[in-house]
């Protein structure tokens, strides 16, 4: 029997490795930008087209490469970062495996232009599918410029699994933001399809956060700094009132490398205990500086997971540092803001027997048309008290000033609301005079309605969400959402990822009744909102709509259904809202006009019915 085990060709091995290293265009962006940082560049420019599917280009002013290095960098396990196994425990660079460029070259058309600062001519290397097409000297600026074209051109299955351009662009923006946050001392720029999304000068960390996420983040940041013998922590955390329902603004950097660590995330959330709204996640950008010998980053191909030598100590230090910053800057409220104490000392209670009624003196015989007769003037000089005048002219008693003592009297006997009428007049009552059906509200959360077989309980928030969801779905299908114009158009500033998401959803958002128009790179102007939204802030409803849309993980819903569901959840009346009888009646009528009135948007019941028989059985049970 012949041998069946054989070595794979380099091209096939590189494609297999590329499946782990390069999962989507954002993965290639990450590897190429990290290489630029390791090359010592202080100016890095990223250019993409079609969300990285057509072109990914990274230009830097780093050290550049020689002719030999330019060719060798595309070989597997070729790296300048380590020389021996011991170097793995002292890694300070972003890359060290030597797999990234070989993996990218195996699945794309790659062109490298590089020149060292001391050389007069640069080198150009062109590779297609791990095969070098040509290599020649040419003029090139100092540094390196790598262009990746037609990503996954020779792996159509992987290319077909890529998402839409807006989704892939958001992933690229996420990777760009992580690298830009880790190195605020470097200049970065980001161009997508000819538009500059980011222009980040060299600055401080706080300025970099504000430039990436918006000017409104300037007031949301709380500094964190802690120095110990084990590790050093610095960075910023967000105030609890600005926490969001979705993750995405949580950044951990260990030795300037972005990592994902649920264990450390739990430490931060534990520090926010009792001051963070339920089901929300605060912003944090935290840098941990630790001895490389005490960690292991060679855990995952993406290098976003780390093993620690003493993870419990790191947990405790991180939790204490965050909690200390929250206390130092008085983030936790120390006063009861629910109690109004501003008028406590303005009104002094006085005993009832010391209260004196005011009196008014005037002359009832005063004549403004007096001709100057002395006898008339003498009459004017005589003053009469107000009670005496009233006693002569009217029948009002003099003890009117005792009316204030009515509070001391016993409560009067309550009279019947409806006077008793003869029985024979009941037949003349018209149907329109009959009382309307009454509804009751329990704890401003549930509506009680009597039915023939018993009564039913309706969750008012779930009912309103169902009503609005079906209504918004109809607007999306008909493209006829009603809009109410804003008296003063509002400006909504978003980060680049949310701005790209809004642009992708703009036709559907306008079908719901929103009137938005772009204003600048990452800003929208809201001229109108759906007519069903009342007493809402335009900017806040847009932000909540985005957060809920990104937070939905139900893959069965398409984009339209997700958008309608998100808007319905934000526009619905909330539990705790007091409703009058007319509002409850209208809510119930609209609910039963829905196609699925019994099921909420979360798959739970909206209506629970109790029959008279069930009540009788409950009362018949013996203790």
TrEMBL record:
In the UniProt record, does the keyword Nuclease occur?
yes
**Swiss-Prot/TrEMBL keywords:** DNA damage, DNA repair, Endonuclease, Hydrolase, Nuclease
Which Gene Ontology molecular function entries are recorded, alphabetically? ATP binding; ATP hydrolysis activity; ATP-dependent DNA damage sensor activity; endonuclease activity; mismatched DNA binding
The answer, when asked if DNA damage is one of the entry's keywords, is: yes
Q: Which residues form the MutL C-terminal dimerisation domain?
A: 438-579
Name all DNA mismatch repair protein S5 domain ranges. Answer: 209-327
Which Gene Ontology terms describe the biological processes this protein takes part in?
mismatch repair
Q: Which domain of life is it from?
A: Bacteria
What GO cellular component term, any one, is given?
A: mismatch repair complex
NCBIfam families noted in UniProt: mutl
Relate the protein's function as given in its record: This protein is involved in the repair of mismatches in DNA. It is required for dam-dependent methyl-directed DNA mismatch repair. May act as a 'molecular matchmaker', a protein that promotes the formation of a stable complex between two or more DNA-binding proteins in an ATP-dependent manner without itself being part of a final effector complex.
The UniProt entry, under HAMAP family, shows: DNA_mis_repair
Family of this protein: Belongs to the DNA mismatch repair MutL/HexB family.
> What is the protein name given in its UniProt record?
DNA mismatch repair protein MutL
Q: What is the lineage of its organism?
A: Bacteria, Pseudomonadati, Bacteroidota, Sphingobacteriia, Sphingobacteriales
């Amino acid at each position: 029997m012949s041998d069946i085990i054989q070595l794979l060709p380099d091209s096939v091995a590189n494609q297999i490795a590329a499946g782990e290293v390069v999962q989507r265009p954002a993965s290639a962006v990450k590897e190429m930008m990290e290489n630029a940082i390791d090359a010592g560049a202080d100016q890095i420019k990223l250019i993409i087209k079609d969300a990285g599917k057509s072109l990914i280009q990274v230009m830097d002013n780093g050290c550049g490469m020689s002719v030999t290095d330019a060719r060798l960098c595309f070989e597997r396990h070729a790296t300048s970062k380590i020389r021996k196994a011991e170097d793995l425990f002292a890694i300070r660079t972003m890359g060290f495996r030597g797999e990234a460029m070989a993996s990218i070259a195996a699945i794309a058309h790659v062109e490298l232009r590089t020149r060292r600062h001391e050389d007069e001519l640069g080198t150009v290397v062109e590779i297609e599918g791990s095969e070098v097409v040509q290599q020649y000297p040419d003029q090139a600026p100092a540094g390196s410029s790598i262009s990746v074209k037609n990503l996954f051109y020779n792996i159509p299955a992987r290319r077909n699994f890529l998402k839409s351009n807006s989704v892939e662009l958001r992933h690229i923006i996420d990777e760009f933001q992580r690298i830009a946050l880790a190195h605020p001392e470097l200049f970065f720029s980001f161009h997508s399809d000819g538009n500059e999304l980011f222009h980040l000068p060299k600055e401080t960390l706080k300025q970099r956060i504000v430039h990436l996420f918006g000017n409104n983040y300037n007031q949301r940041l709380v500094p964190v700094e802690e120095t110990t013998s084990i590790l050093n922590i610095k960075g910023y955390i967000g105030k609890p009132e600005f926490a969001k329902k979705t993750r995405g603004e949580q950044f951990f950097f260990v030795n300037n490398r972005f990592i994902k660590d649920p264990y450390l995330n739990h430490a931060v959330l534990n520090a926010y205990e009792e001051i963070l709204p339920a089901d929300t996640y605060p912003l944090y950008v935290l840098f941990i500086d630790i001895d490389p010998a005490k960690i292991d980053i060679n855990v995952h191909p993406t290098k976003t997971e780390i093993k620690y030598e003493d993870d419990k100590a790191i947990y405790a230090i991180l939790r204490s540092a965050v909690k200390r910053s929250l206390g130092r800057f008085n983030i936790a409220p120390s006063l009861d803001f629910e109690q109004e104490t501003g008028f406590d000392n303005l009104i002094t209670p006085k005993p009832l027997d010391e209260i004196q009624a005011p009196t008014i003196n005037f002359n009832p015989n005063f004549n403004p048309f007096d001709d100057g007769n002395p006898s008339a003037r003498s009459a004017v000089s005589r003053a009469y008290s107000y009670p005496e005048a009233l006693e002569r002219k009217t029948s009002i008693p003099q003890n009117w000033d005792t009316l204030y003592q009515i509070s001391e009297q016993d409560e009067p006997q309550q009279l019947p609301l409806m006077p008793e009428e003869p029985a024979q007049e009941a037949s003349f009552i018209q149907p329109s005079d009959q009382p309307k059906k009454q509804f009751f509200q329990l704890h401003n959360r549930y509506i009680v309605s009597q039915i023939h077989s018993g009564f039913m309980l309706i969750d008012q928030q779930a009912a309103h969400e169902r009503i609005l969801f079906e209504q918004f779905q109809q607007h999306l299908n008909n493209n006829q959402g009603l809009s109410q114009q804003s008296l003063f158009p509002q400006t909504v500033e978003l980060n680049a990822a949310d701005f790209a998401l809004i642009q992708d959803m703009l036709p559907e958002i306008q079908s719901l009744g929103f009137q938005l128009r772009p204003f600048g790179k990452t800003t929208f102007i809201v001229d109108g909102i759906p007519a069903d939204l009342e007493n809402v802030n335009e900017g806040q409803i847009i932000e909540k709509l985005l957060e809920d849309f990104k937070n939905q993980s139900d893959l069965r819903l398409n984009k339209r259904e997700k958008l309608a569901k998100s808007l319905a959840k934000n526009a619905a009346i909330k539990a705790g809202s007091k409703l009058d009888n007319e509002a409850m009646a209208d809510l119930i009528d609209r609910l039963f006009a829905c196609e699925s009135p019994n099921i909420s948007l979360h798959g739970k019941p909206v209506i629970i019915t109790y029959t008279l028989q069930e009540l009788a059985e409950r009362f018949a049970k013996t203790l």
